[in-house]
Design a protein that fits this description.
By secondary structure, this protein is α+β, with helices and mostly antiparallel strands. Helices cover 31% and strands 25% of the residues.
Length: 393
């Protein structure tokens, strides 16, 4: 019997379109002889849609048309099963669809930050990604860096602030930036795909960069820039119980920072929906055996420190002069699901998707074996007016 696998994508995020590309790639990679694919598109206004037209990338050239060509749906649990149903029932059409497994492929806020994962955990449906906690930490660079520091993992010198604090008084943060030493990198704490990130070489550029980052997030991260920078990434497939590391890539960029355009729009025309796979990169990266081993070790250490799962990508910075390695961040739901880092290792995209399905099944099985409720008669000790705090004596 085929599994009904729902792919959830889109969402209320500036990375909405990136999510669509990643989802279409993943859907194409699923083995249709083993699974029935159910697309669940979440619009920018947080409405859920489904329908066969959503399986075609061309549908999304007009997002309003994409919604009009599909059906508004909702998810609910009935006893031990989770279903998708139509909001507006239609004659002679099956009204509900069983959902066996969900694979969320949503980048950024409201999809990669734990909010969607919390909803799926509440439904108690098997899903393939990091759980609520790991997703939230992986999205918030401030909390993530604190955990890395506490775990003894290497990161660059940094500090953080709230945008409103800077608006009230710039002086203490200008002093911190001066102490950190220019150049510095300024990032919104909860975004990905290089959105809102700036490189500042002096106080004037720092002020401008903080204002830009504040447009996207209330929390802002400031990091010491590495002048002789090499950027390398490594994907991890699995969880703390078992995981494997991919080949390491070195990302090339014509700018000081790899921009959104370079990640997703470069060579996009005629690229057959390559997404992140179209970015300029060297796979495998030309690293010494010692550096390669350390990147792999640190990649597994990041997964362990956050209890992440599914498929993730850890981004590193290397000082080309000293060979010092610093963890930049984890992407708990990377663009294109980082499939391009596995191909030369003999793992194709279809195998990755099959692995994610198995991970979801295994985690649900472990969850079902844990005690999640505690039998108690505490409510029997409350009187009829117990809501006011009076106990029956």
């Amino acid at each position: 019997m085929k599994l009904n696998v729902a792919i959830m994508f889109g969402g209320k995020s500036v990375e909405h379109e990136v999510s669509i590309i990643s989802a279409m790639q993943a859907i194409n990679a699923l083995d249709k002889t083993k699974v029935n694919v159910i697309p669940i598109y979440i619009s920018k206004d947080s409405q859920l849609y489904s329908g066969d037209s959503l399986l075609n990338i061309e549908t999304y050239s007009d997002l309003e048309q994409a919604k009009s060509q599909s059906n508004s749906v909702y998810l609910y649990k009935d006893k031990n099963n989770v279903y998708m149903n139509l909001i507006k029932p239609k004659l002679f059409k099956e009204q509900k669809q069983l959902i066996d497994i969900v694979i969320p492929i949503m980048h950024g806020t409201y999809g990669e930050d734990g909010k969607l994962q919390g909803f799926l955990e509440l439904l108690d449906v098997p899903f393939a990604s990091s759980d609520t906690t790991a997703s939230a930490i992986g999205q918030d660079k401030v909390i993530m860096k604190h955990i890395f520091q506490n775990s003894g993992l290497p990161i660059v010198n940094w500090f953080w602030l709230y945008g409103f604090e800077f608006k009230n008084d710039q002086t203490p943060f200008l002093e911190k930036a001066e102490t950190l030493g220019y150049p510095v990198v300024i990032k919104p704490a909860n975004l990905g795909s290089s959105i809102g990130i700036s490189f500042a070489k002096n106080a004037d550029e720092f002020i401008e960069a903080i204002h830009l980052a504040s447009e996207f997030d209330e929390k802002i991260v400031v990091e010491k820039a590495i002048s002789n920078l090499r950027e390398v990434n490594c994907s991890v497939l699995g969880d703390v119980y078992h995981n494997e590391v991919s080949l390491i890539e070195e990302v090339g960029s014509s700018a000081e920072l790899l921009s959104f355009d370079e990640k997703y729009l470069s060579n996009a025309k005629g690229s057959k929906m390559q997404g992140m796979a179209s970015t300029k990169r060297d796979v495998p990266a030309q690293l010494s055996s010692a550096l390669e081993a350390e990147v792999h070790r640190l990649s597994k250490a990041v997964v362990h420190s956050l209890n992440s799962s599914g498929i993730c990508r850890i981004d590193f910075m290397i000082d080309a002069i000293t060979d010092a390695i610093y963890i930049n961040e984890i992407n708990t739901m990377p663009g294109s699901l980082a499939f391009y880092l596995w191909a030369d290792k003999g793992v194709d995209f279809s195998q990755i998707m099959g692995n994610l399905i198995q991970q979801a099944i295994d985690r649900k099985r472990r969850s079902d074996q844990r005690t999640t409720t505690y039998a108690s008669n505490i409510l029997s000790n409350y009187a009829a007016n117990g809501s006011k705090g009076k106990l029956k004596m």
